[in-house]
Write a structure and sequence with these properties.
Layout: E1 6-13, H1 19-35, E2 38-43, E3 49-55, H2 59-67, H3 70-73, E4 77-84
Antiparallel strand pairs: 1-3, 1-4, 2-3
Length: 87
């Protein structure tokens, strides 16, 4: 069981999203999953965005991970990160 803090990353789509960035974002999430960093991910039912849960040592480490996400670097989404104290 992973005991590091959990961070909720929320992505809200902007009006224009590059389809190539979507595919690169999915590949990024697959890599995080393979590393054991990503716990869950998925789109919102209304397709306006999505979210994912990652494990990181602290907020700065979570921000560094998200800064590599093509969804973050492409400018197609508004991204927020919250440390989540889920039970």
């Amino acid at each position: 069981m992973n005991t590091r803090p959990v961070f909720l990353v929320i992505l809200m789509r902007r009006p224009v999203v590059d389809p190539a960035a979507v595919e690169a974002h999915r590949a990024f999430l697959d890599a995080l999953r393979a590393e054991g960093v990503l716990e869950r991910s998925g789109p919102f039912a209304d397709k306006r965005g999505g979210a994912y849960l990652i494990h990181a040592d602290d907020l700065a480490a979570a921000q560094a991970i998200v800064a590599r996400d093509p969804a973050s670097t492409s400018g197609g989404w508004d991204v927020t990160i919250h440390e989540w104290q889920a039970l």
